[in-house]
Each structure stands twice: as C-alpha cells, then as structure tokens.
Amino acid sequence: MMKILNLINGQLVAPVSDTYIDNYNPSTGTIYSLIPDSDERDVENAVAAAKNAFPAWRDMPKEKRSAILIKLSDLIQRDLDKLALAESIDNGKPLWLSKSVDIPRAVSNIHFYATASLHLHDEAYSMGTVAMNYTMRTPLGIAGCISPWNLPLYLFTWKIAPALASGNCVIAKPSEITPMTAFHLAELSIEAGMPAGVLNIIHGYGHKVGAAIVSHKDIPAISFTGGTKTGEDIARVAAPMFKKISLELGGKNPNIIFADCDFEKAVQTTVRSSFSNQGEICLCGSRIFVERSIYEKFKTAFVEEVKKLKVGNPLNDENWIGAIVSKPHMEKILSYVQLAKQEGGTVICGGQQLHPEGEHANGYYIAPTVIEGLTYDCRTNQEEIFGPVVTLMPFDTEEQVLKYANSTTYGLAASVWTQHLTRAHRVVANLQSGIVWINTWLLRDLRTPFGGVKNSGVGREGGFEALKFFTEEKNVCIKL
Ligand code: NDP
C-alpha cells in the first residue's frame, strides 16, 4: 500500500518511529494509504534543517524567493487534475469542487503571496529636523503551520505561502485525516527548487506532531486553523512562551434573510452556503433566520431546492454532495440530528445516513438536512456541527434577529440578505462577526483581512495581514 512520507531537509523520508496510520477513503470506508505516525523526533530533525536553511533563505533577494514560489504554483496548476483527484479521494469532496475551487485556490494562494511579498514596504516617520524614524520588517525564523481537513491544500497553502514569501522557514503539519495533497506538494516543492530545509512537512497526529511543533522553543510563531477547543489548547501552551499566534477557529454562522431580499438569489445562495463541501466549510451558514412574513415561502422554496441535491460518489460529477470526511465525524453530525429532535426540532428534510449502491455503500454519506422548530439558544443552535445540517428560524424585528445571531460564542462569518442599503449597514455594524457578506456568500478577495471574533479566533489572515504576522517590526530612530 502507498506510504506517504515526510519532507525534511529537502528529502522525502519515513518517520523515525517507522510506524504508520491508516488513511481512509471516506467515499468507500476503506483504507487506501498509510500516513507517517511522526513524533517529536521528526519535528526535532525538521527544526535542525530549518535552522540551517534560514540564514540563506532570509537573505535571498525577495524576487528570487518569489520566483521559486511562482514555480511551485505553476507546478500545482500543471498537476491540477492529479491533485484534485487526490483531494477528493482523501476528503470525500466532489471532484468538480476540488477542480474548480480547492486546487485553483492553492495555486492562487501561492501566486498571490509570491507577488504580494514584493509590495510589502517599510514606513518612515519624520520628526522634522530633529530625527527620522524608519521601520524594518524581518522574518521570524521558523514558523509552525497547522491546518485542518476540510479544505486541505487550500488552507495548507494559505498559511505556508505568506510564511515562506516573507523569508521564514516552515514546519507544517496537515491534518492526519487528509494528508495526500500536502505530500504531493512536498514532491512539487523539491521540483520547484525550494532549498533544502526551507519547507518541512511532517505528517501525524495533532497530539504528537502538532503538540511538538507548538511547544518547540525554536519555533516562535504558530499559525493554526482548526477547532476552537484545539485553538484553546494551543494558546495555553504558546502564550506563556510568548509566541506569536494566529488562530482561525470554528464558527456557527448566521444567514439573515429579510423580506425585501432578492428572493431567488437568497434561496439559491443559501443552498450553496449551507451545503457546499458537505457543509464542512468554516464559513458555511448553519443558522438561517428568515423574516416571518416570508418564512413559509422561503422554507418551501429552500427545501424544494435542497431535495434536488444529489449525494454520492464524489468522483461522479452528477453528485453535488460527496462523503463526510470520516466515520467519527459522520457520527458526530448524526448525533446532532438526534439532539435537535430531543430539543423539539422537526427534521423537514434529510436527517439520515445514506448508503449509495455498490462500493460506496459503506461510505460516509449524510442527506442534506433542514431542521425547524428550535429555539435560538438550544445546543443545536449554539454548537458547531460542521456538516450538512442547517436550522430555519423565523424572526420579527432587526433587534430580535441581532440578538439571535450574536447569541453564540462564535463570530466568524455572516450573510445578510436585504435590498435596503441603510438597514444592511445598520445590521452589519451590530453583528459580532469578523466577515460579513451582503447579498452574497464566499465572495473572496485575497487582499482582505480574514478571521473571526469571540471564540472564532485571534488575529487576521489574508493580504498584508499575514505577511505582517510572519515578520517582526523594528523601529529605528536616527538623531539628525
Ligand atoms: P482540529 O482542531 O481537530 O485539527 C486541526 C489541526 O490541528 C489538525 O492538523 C490536527 O491534527 C491538529 N491538532 C490537533 N490537536 C493538536 C494539538 N494539541 N496541538 C497542535 N495541533 C493539534 O480541527 P479539524 O481538523 O477537525 O477541522 C475542523 C475545524 O476547523 C472546525 O471547527 C472548523 O470550523 C475549523 N476551521 C476554521 C477555519 C477558519 O478559517 N476559521 C477554516 C476551516 C476550518 P489531527 O488531524 O491529527 O487531529
């Protein structure tokens, strides 16, 4: 069976332990490859390689660093079909989605930061004839980048690209649930001419490899995307070590639909924002609040569209929804459907595991699920489910819907649907959320700040924010 390898010091190597973890294909429920069960010894080897590589990478002209990264993004583009297939087999997401979103976005991430880093500039503060201040930005050294399974290569590259482009060496850990495209990226980085030790990719469990990266004294910055509980664990270790930390965490995002919305667009986009990638996107809207006067009309149209969504083999382009990433995650999602029923909810469509025919019968499929009749403050409406499950709730006033929307501990993203510009601005100003879309969803410009408030995270990624995170600013004052 195929064995994935770590990338350390420019070489693809087995883990020191020489033991491996089973890698499942969630669309069939079968094991199809083996992942290194790495530990702190592999992290130690990577740190030694990165320390060695850092001075030359830091001092390399940024145009040259940029050229290596552009070559890497070109190679991902060249291998788009291969990588998209690998992503879909590993994660369960539809192949059409990997081809149109995940892999193209990995190309853009690297290309974007390869060029953005050329435009990062220092600042000067004149004190007239007395003195001149100027700032210098220098890379931090070794950056630890830890990413989740839902958008594997997309989120992995979103972290490592700004870290590398700004002159850091990187020790990165993809989720052990979806390691395959990070392994292919390792191969491509060698082909792109990335100097040995600059990018190191270590596979394995979070509590071993991830924890070893977070607690390593020679890794001064941790950029993490994943669950809120893991973010809390990381902060507990990293904060007393005074590490820089960027945490992109969970969400329980509201969609607020006013009666004066463009009805058709609101319905179509809400279907997408609810069930894209099996609902496994941190930005998916999972609580849908609809103004009471159009509640029944919206519910009927929404459910009619949801029932049309085909679920099954991710490699078949007819299917809009693929498999849930793992059996434990599928069971967690289904347990929330049971909880919703206990809390008084009515499942108006979906709610159950599906067993497509043939080799996919044992895969992890869930019918897109819509639930109504719950209160805004019940557990189903407060906790992140991270699957194809949404709730519908009517509201009467702006004040009421803001109370509902802001009631969770999260604050990542929100969508507001209204044609009333003033109301849109008023509602947005009062939403506790790092990202808000008005009359759209997931329209992204890579220059914009990305991140959440409350338990959805600390710091911002995207644009110059990420380049600033991965560099340290120094002020220099010259007496004239
Ligand atoms: P987890 O928090 O379980 O894992 C994320 C990564 O952290 C994995 O690589 C994991 O390894 C690793 N990890 C686990 N424990 C530790 C530890 N103690 N120290 C260091 N690393 C550790 O998240 P999921 O992979 O389950 O991803 C889903 C979550 O990610 C959801 O909550 C979702 O909302 C959030 N997310 C947030 C985004 C955002 O931008 N705000 C974007 C996408 C997802 P392992 O796989 O071995 O557990």
Could you explain how this protein is built, in words?
- Helix 4 packs parallel to helix 5 (152-165).
- Helix content is 39%, strand content 22%.
- Strands 14-17-18-13-12-19-20 form a 7-stranded mixed β-sheet, with helices on both faces. It has a 6-stranded mixed β-sheet with strand order 9-8-7-10-11-21, sandwiched between helices. It has a 3-stranded antiparallel β-sheet with strand order 5-6-22.
- The protein has 14 helices and 22 strands.
- The protein has helices at 40-59, 62-78, 80-91, 95-119, 152-165, 180-191, 206-215, 228-238, 263-275, 295-308, 327-342, 398-405, 421-430, 463-469, and strands at 6-8, 11-13, 20-25, 30-36, 124-126, 131-139, 142-146, 169-173, 199-201, 221-225, 244-248, 253-257, 285-291, 346-349, 353-354, 365-366, 369-372, 389-395, 413-417, 435-438, 457-458, 471-479.
- The structure holds NADPH dihydro-nicotinamide-adenine-dinucleotide phosphate.
- NADPH dihydro-nicotinamide-adenine-dinucleotide phosphate binds next to helix 7 and helix 8.
